[in-house]
């Protein structure tokens, strides 16, 4: 696979240390994209969930090693802790293994726009912990994420390519969930307006987006638990929402073909 050079990569809500973490997909994404800046916008390692049970795989290790290697090789890596890794908030301003921890950060794009980076949990009106669990119900959300594993398997058996998120479908269909997304976006943008920036890049609600809101840009990185999304800044400063849809690495690798390009889509903003 050809590596694609972008200016910056923004990732949030990876939730390393949990069963839901889609580390294989993230690794594929990281193998495809390389960047001068790498921003980790919170809930990267899920200490909160790990205090109950730990699910740490060798692929998750590889993800961590890949990030550390990039930092060592000159990629500017900045981690903004979220609520699931808020233990790291004690260390803001400190650099660990070339990764700098910051509570917030302002990133300037190649075309001169200034974006405030924050995780976003402080703007969450529902809960300071796991919002989708609160919105859709603890059992319901976790069941949806697990059911999706089976659904993906069935889809592959039927020869349907790409990845589809059942939890994502529920979020779009359940009215309280949709309202929750809007309330969060409003609240974040209200905060941004007072800061005099051109936009915000956040995470937390596991709902990726690039939207213009009254002259400011609202951007959410999404997550690597069920939607597998990231934001990339191209060399000219253009920001793109990437939804990573290629097959899981554990599947047999198909023979190279003419349309071997990664199956990813850019969502409309
Ligand atoms: Mn969060």
TrEMBL record:
GO terms for molecular function: metal ion binding; UDP-2,3-diacylglucosamine hydrolase activity. One of its GO terms (cellular component) is membrane. Keywords: Cell inner membrane, Cell membrane, Manganese, Membrane, Metal-binding. The keyword Nucleotidyltransferase does not apply. Pfam families: Metallophos. It comes from the Bacteria. Residues 7-207 form the Calcineurin-like phosphoesterase domain. GO terms for biological process: lipid A biosynthetic process. This is Metallo-phosphoesterase protein. It comes from Azoarcus sp. (strain BH72).
């Amino acid at each position: 696979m050809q590596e694609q050079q972008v200016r910056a990569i923004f990732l949030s809500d990876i939730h390393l240390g949990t069963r839901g973490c889609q580390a294989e997909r993230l690794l594929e994404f990281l193998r495809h994209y390389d960047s001068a800046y790498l921003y980790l916008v919170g809930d990267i390692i899920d200490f909160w969930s790990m205090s109950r049970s730990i699910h740490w795989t060798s692929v998750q290790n590889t993800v961590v090693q890949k990030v550390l290697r990039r930092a060592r090789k000159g990629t500017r890596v900045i981690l903004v802790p979220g609520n699931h890794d808020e233990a790291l908030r004690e260390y803001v301003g400190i650099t660990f293994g070339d990764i700098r921890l910051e509570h917030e950060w302002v990133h300037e794009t190649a075309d001169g726009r200034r974006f405030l980076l924050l995780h976003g949990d402080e703007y969450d009106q529902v809960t300071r912990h796991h919002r989708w669990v609160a919105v859709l119900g603890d059992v319901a959300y976790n069941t949806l994420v697990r059911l999706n594993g089976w659904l993906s398997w069935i889809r592959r058996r039927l020869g349907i390519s790409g990845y589809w998120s059942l939890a994502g479908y529920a979020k779009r269909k359940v009215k309280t969930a949709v309202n929750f997304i809007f309330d969060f976006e409003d609240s974040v943008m209200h905060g941004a307006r007072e800061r005099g920036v051109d936009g915000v890049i956040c995470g937390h609600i596991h709902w990726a987006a690039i939207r213009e809101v009254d002259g400011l840009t609202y951007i959410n990185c999404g997550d690597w638990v069920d939607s597998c999304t990231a934001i990339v800044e191209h060399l000219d400063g253009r920001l793109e929402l990437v939804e990573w849809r290629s097959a899981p690495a554990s599947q047999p690798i198909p023979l190279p073909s003419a349309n071997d390009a990664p199956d990813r889509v850019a969502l409309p903003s």
